[in-house]
Design brief:
The protein has 3 helices and 10 strands; from the N terminus they run αβββαββαβββββ. The protein has 227 residues and is an alpha+beta fold. It is elongated. The mean pLDDT is 85.
């Protein structure tokens, strides 16, 4: 008598599939365990328990009208200037920051532009002197201390591009630099006939310009400190 093995074959196939899944699952689980153990490691740290602060410095430059021998500084207008005249203006510069300066320049801007600040020969000439103490209140323009010539006579036309300015010190928080700005109109001659100068467009008569004086300091050379 013949017997049917269909049911048996189905059960066997099902059992094999279950066993296969169990084996695969076990394999994956084992791989997971192996991966976790591979990335396991010891870790140690160290850190400071005090200090560690970092503070930046400042670079600061301020300009103020000197109190002596006059307090007007650049704010006092110059009027009726004639060829051969010299006007002195007194200002104090202070590096009030904590970083020393490395260099300093002086430049001007003029509005409107005219012969006074565009003609290097007949226009304004600028000189800067420094006194180690405040300029004399008794005799204007006299330095009772040590005089430093920070800028020799230079045409205003040249100062339209900032020029090197050499003060006695660039140290931070130092005593103010006591400066005398010498503004001179070179001596010259013009003949005016019926209200018209023979100098034409190069005349120095009847001109007005507003000048902005800009002192600029730059940071000292960067340093490397080992400690």
């Amino acid at each position: 008598m013949l017997r049917s093995f269909t049911g048996f074959a189905a059960k066997s196939a099902s059992s094999m599939a279950i066993k296969t899944l169990v084996v695969v699952g076990a394999g994956l689980g084992g791989a997971s365990l192996v991966s976790s153990s591979v990335f396991a490691a010891l870790t140690a740290t160290a850190s400071n328990v005090s200090g560690g602060s970092v503070q930046t410095g400042t670079l600061s430059l301020t300009q103020a009208n000197a109190t002596a021998p006059a307090s007007g500084g650049f704010t006092t207008a110059i009027t009726a200037l004639a060829p051969g005249d010299t006007i002195n203006r007194y200002v104090d510069l202070t590096n009030g920051g904590s970083i020393n300066a490395g260099a300093m320049t002086l430049g001007i801007a003029a509005s409107p532009a005219n012969v006074l600040t565009t003609n290097a020969t007949t226009g304004l000439q600028i000189t800067v002197d420094e006194c180690s103490i405040a300029w004399s209140t008794v005799t204007a323009g006299v330095c009772s201390g040590t005089t430093t010539h920070n800028l020799l006579a230079t045409p205003a036309a040249t100062l339209l591009t900032a020029q090197t300015f050499t003060p006695s010190t660039l140290t931070a928080s130092a005593t103010a630099l006591h400066l005398k700005i010498v503004i001179a109109l070179p001596a010259g001659s013009e003949i005016t006939v019926n209200g018209v100068s023979n100098a034409g467009v190069n005349t120095v008569q009847g001109l007005t310009t507003a000048v902005t004086w800009t002192f600029t300091e730059t940071e000292r050379t960067a340093t490397t400190t080992n400690s």
